[in-house]
Design goal:
The structure is a single chain. By secondary structure, the chain is of the alpha/beta class. The chain has five helices and five strands. Strands 3-2-1-4-5 form a five-stranded mixed β-sheet. The chain starts with 6 loop residues before the first strand and ends in a 9-residue tail after the last helix.
Length: 140
């Protein structure tokens, strides 16, 4: 049950690769939901990395469907800072899958970002899957 005391925000970064110290964000998508799971606000944008990118790793392009053409004329993450930070307040609860990755990228760009708490859906899914019967057990 969600409480109307909090704002609930889900966010996803697509990045040039997996190392937060040297890789960069190339797309962001943020969705805020209300206590009835209705979308009340969202923001999505390609992001132009600070370092020139002549090509994306094949795996990144395959997984994200993002091309160099998509990001060449995109704004930098700092150009859209106000659009991004309007989702984050002291009463915001973040909901993400594999949250540590995205939070690390968020804090890379905005170290003082504010939020109340976070829920990692990876561990929620892991817990549910752990409780389910294995398909191999169905044979017995």
């Amino acid at each position: 049950m969600l409480s109307d005391k909090y704002r609930y925000v889900a966010m996803d970064f697509e990045t040039t690769w997996l190392d937060v110290s040297k890789d960069e964000a190339i797309q962001i998508w943020i969705v805020e939901i209300d206590v009835n799971w209705n979308v009340v606000n969202q923001y999505k944008s390609f992001l132009k990395p600070e370092k020139p990118v002549s090509e994306l790793k094949n795996l990144v392009a395959y997984i994200t469907w993002i091309s160099v053409d998509d990001i060449q004329s995109a704004p930098s993450i700092f150009d859209v800072k106000d659009e991004i930070l309007k989702f984050f307040w002291e009463n915001t609860i973040l909901i993400w899958h594999n949250i540590e990755f995205d939070i690390n990228f968020l804090k890379k760009y905005f170290p003082d970002v504010k939020y109340f708490d976070s829920i990692d859906t990876f561990w929620l899914l892991f817990s549910i899957m752990f409780l389910l019967r294995s398909r191999s057990e169905e044979r017995f």
